[in-house]
C-alpha cells in the first residue's frame, strides 16, 4: 500500500499539535481555560473536547447504556458551547459544569427517544440505575468476599441520590463542594450529609450478624 508522505506528515503534525495543546493548558486553572475558550481560543476548545469528552462518556454511561445516545449528547453539548462563545458565564469548575450538562442532555434525549414528554425530569433521573464500579476505593478496601457481596447488595438498596453521591465522591474523587454543584444542592452540607448517611447505611449492611 502506497502512503502519501504529505498526508502522513499532516497526521503526525496533528498528533503533535494535540499533545502540545495539552501541555499548554494542563497547568492552567479551570477559570483561565474557560475564559480563553469563551474568548474564542480554538486551542482551548480543542483541549476541552480532548480532555473531557472521554470523561463525559464514562459518566454518561452511568445513566444510559445507549452508546450512540451518549455520544450524541456529548456532541450536542460541545456544539452548543461553541455557538455560545462570548456569551457564557464564568465557570470555576469545568468538570462539574459539564457533568450537569451531560445529565440534562441525556434526560432530554431519553425523553425524546421514548416519547415520555409528560414525565417529570426529576422522576426520570431518579429511575436511572447508577452503578458503582467494584474498583471503587471503598469496595476495594473490603478483602472478605462475603463482606464485599453484602456491600454491593447494600449499594443496590441505596437511593439513586445516595449512589450518585458515592460515585462522585469515591470513584470520581470530587469534593463535597463539587458534588453539591453537580447535584444542584444549595448547601455543601447537604452533599456531606447524603454521603455520611449512605456510608452509615452500608456499614449496617456489612455488620456481622449477632
From TrEMBL:
Domain spans labelled RNA polymerase sigma factor 70 region 4 type: 150-200
Keyword rRNA-binding: no
Annotated keywords: Sigma factor, Transcription, Transcription regulation
Keyword Transcription regulation applies: yes
Domain of life, per lineage: Bacteria
UniProt GO MF annotations: DNA binding; sigma factor activity
Biological-process GO terms, alphabetical: DNA-templated transcription initiation
Pfam families assigned to the protein according to its UniProt record, in alphabetical order: Sigma70_r4_2
UniProt cross-references to PANTHER family, sorted A to Z: RNA POLYMERASE ECF-TYPE SIGMA FACTO (PTHR43133), RNA POLYMERASE SIGMA-70 FACTOR ECF SUBFAMILY (PTHR43133:SF46)
Family: Belongs to the sigma-70 factor family. ECF subfamily.
Protein name: RNA polymerase sigma-70 factor (ECF subfamily)
Organism: Algoriphagus antarcticus
